[in-house]
């Protein structure tokens, strides 16, 4: 998906292949793995905030909202094409080729600390603050959450009498699992599912975006990693399996920003956005973008206008 907000010229500096262990869309939500992507390079005018996004629609949407809010209040902000998975965009932030990116609290925490045990929102935030690189900070967490899940069709849930991930683990030898490729190596992924539930699928299908839900719907996969705000869960009647052992924690949306760009004005603007961003609002906007195919920048600007943020 291309964003159509004003775009800064972000050159492609390098393709990475990083191997790390650690949580996500993980997509978005998750920790380290073998992942490749493009790290943007180049410079921006003094004071301009370059807002990055991961390679999935919701991250692009939230990035567009942040940029629209900043521009509406007189702070120049630009967006560009999606950068890649967490391993790639965090490198871009560290190198200074982007200044701000939407993140998910628990996924980011488990990226930095795979052994983290905190799952409640306040505890996750407190632990995350201690793990951030010196030049970065997080702002207020939104009420909006979008967590990783293990999801199945209703037919599969009924056939195998599934309520929890542990129930699914009993059928591991019959399960093809669909998820982004990085899900294989993440603690909020197959590593954590094996460690906590002994869920070891017979095979794995590396897919992105709507192809994941489509594979599940067509029974090309019997289980999938689908985010809680994904419109396909409701549209297709999928069943999200309970996670009593907390492989997936509280993934509240948070802005991750370079301290050098986190002026009081910028913090005030972005924290106001966070205060208005709820899970139902985020899910509704996801549907507009992913199902109704509305332009990302249009949806973002509508959110700013309807919530008095302009």
Automatic annotation (TrEMBL):
Q: Which InterPro entries match?
A: ABC_Gly_betaine_transp_sub-bd
Q: Which GO terms describe its cellular component?
A: ATP-binding cassette (ABC) transporter complex
The cross-references to Pfam families, in alphabetical order and at most eight, read: OpuAC (PF04069)
Q: Where is the ABC-type glycine betaine transport system substrate-binding domain?
A: 48-305
Q: Which PROSITE patterns does the protein's record reference?
A: PROKAR_LIPOPROTEIN
Q: Give the signal sequence positions.
A: 1-19
Q: Which GO terms describe its molecular function?
A: transmembrane transporter activity
**Which SUPFAM superfamilies does the protein's record reference?**
Periplasmic binding protein-like II
Does the keyword Signal belong to this entry? yes
Q: Which UniProt keywords apply?
A: Signal
Protein name per the record: Osmoprotectant transport system substrate-binding protein
């Amino acid at each position: 998906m291309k964003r159509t907000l004003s775009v800064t010229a972000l050159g492609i500096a390098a393709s990475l292949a990083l191997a790390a262990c650690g949580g996500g869309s993980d997509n978005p939500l998750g920790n380290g793995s073998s992942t490749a992507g493009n790290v943007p390079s180049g410079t921006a005018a003094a004071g301009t905030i370059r807002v990055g996004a991961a390679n999935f629609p919701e991250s692009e949407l939230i990035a567009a909202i942040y940029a629209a809010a900043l521009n509406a209040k007189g702070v120049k902000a630009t967006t560009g094409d999606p950068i890649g998975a967490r391993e790639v965009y965090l490198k871009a932030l560290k190198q200074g080729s982007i200044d701000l990116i939407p993140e998910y609290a628990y996924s980011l925490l488990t990226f930095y600390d795979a052994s983290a045990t905190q799952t409640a929102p306040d505890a996750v935030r407190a632990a995350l603050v201690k793990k951030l690189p010196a030049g970065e900070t997080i702002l207020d967490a939104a009420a909006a959450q979008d967590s990783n899940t293990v999801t199945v069709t209703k037919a599969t849930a009924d056939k195998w009498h599934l309520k929890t991930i542990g129930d699914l683990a009993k059928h591991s030898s019959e399960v093809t699992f669909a998820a982004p490729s990085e899900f294989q190596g993440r603690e909020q992924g197959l590593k954590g599912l094996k460690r906590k539930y002994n869920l070891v699928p017979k095979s794995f299908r590396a897919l992105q975006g709507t192809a994941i839900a489509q594979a599940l719907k067509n029974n090309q996969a019997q289980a999938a990693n689908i985010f809680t705000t994904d419109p396909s869960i409701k549209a297709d009647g999928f069943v999200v399996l309970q996670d009593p052992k907390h492989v997936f924690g509280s993934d509240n949306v948070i802005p991750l920003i370079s301290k050098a760009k986190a002026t009081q004005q910028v913090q005030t603007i972005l924290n106001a956005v966070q205060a208005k961003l709820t899970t139902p609002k985020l899910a509704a906007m996801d549907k507009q973008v992913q199902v109704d195919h509305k332009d990302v920048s249009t949806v973002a600007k509508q959110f700013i206008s309807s919530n008095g943020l302009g």
